[in-house]
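Much of what follows relies on a compact textual record of a protein's fold. A record is reproduced here so that you can trace the correspondence yourselves:
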Amino acid sequence: MQETRQHILDILKERGEATVDDIVEDLRKRRGTITAVTVRHHLSRLQEENLITTPQLRHRNAPGRPQHIYTLTEEAKEYFPNNYKPLASHLIEQLAQQLPARQVNVILEGVADQMAADANIGDLPLPERLDLAVEYLNQHGYKARWEKHPDGYLLQTTNCPYHHISENNPALCDMDMRLVSSILGVVPRLLSRMSRGDHACAYIIPA
């Protein structure tokens, strides 16, 4: 993220909403001289990236032209610090400590089924389902691809989105197995798993 644009996002986060004049004033305190023209250019780019909303007109209490008000979109939240990794790790640890392994697996299977429902892949020919499954998995950080295989199809993922906790929590790997099965509507056969030291998680999808 370009520095001035990140400053603009920070300003909108702190203020909730702001006009160009507000942003210019705050930016001058942070980095010195900047013009309204430059700020409008950066706002346009942020709009193109869907990080700020379409500006709304606000009428002044005093005489003068109405001003445009800018706010952040939901997508902009990704550009601010979060605590997802420690939270997820501690939640999994507490589940494992407080519940029997079978109950933990049932909970994570439910998570996988919810994710599969979000993917919303219909009753299509298997290659088309694989295309859509790969698209969904890649949107969620898995770096997935598929190819033909003598036993049907080979689906591989070369990145684990939660690698920082899966090594000590094998139930998450089982959750991925359930996710692939639920998305495709076919029970896969596991070939390799990154948590075991393999270079990828690989599944045979029977034709």
About this structure: Residues 3-79 form a domain with the Arc Repressor Mutant, subunit A fold (CATH 1.10.10.10). The first strand starts at residue 56 and ends at 58.
